[in-house]
Amino acid sequence: TKRIKSHMSQEGVEVNTKKNELRELLDRYFKVTITDGRKFEGRFVCFDKEKNIILSHCVEERMFKIKTKNGDFIEKEESKMLNLVLLPSKHIVKVELREMVCKIKA
Q: 41-86 pLDDT, tens per residue?
């Protein structure tokens, strides 16, 4: 019985450690790339059992090509301000932790 109790306590410590690691990520800014190339940058709110990520204060960035008059293509970037976004785990390619950088003009 002692062995089972010690195993359970170790497991409990491991679970608590993982929860604390997740708590440290709350309110931090993430940049998430999905399968179609779009990128979403926003404040990490949570994820669910299916590992879908929810971001708030989110900006969506996407690149697209425009054909010019001479037949060439140029790439343009479009950004949209979004509020709350759920990103399905099956479409997530990359997750980056972003540090907010404040630029102050002198």
A: 999 999 888 989 999 999 999 998 888 888 888 889 999 999 999 9
31 residue type, one letter: K
From residue 77, how far is each of 16, 66, 71, 80 by CA, in Å?
42, 10, 19, 10
Distances (CA, A) of 36 to 5, 8, 10, 62, 82: 48, 43, 41, 9, 18
**pTM of the full predicted structure?**
0.71
- Give me the numbers of helices (H) and strands (E) for the chain, helices first please: 1, 5
Rounded distance, CA 87 to CA 92, Å?
Answer: 7
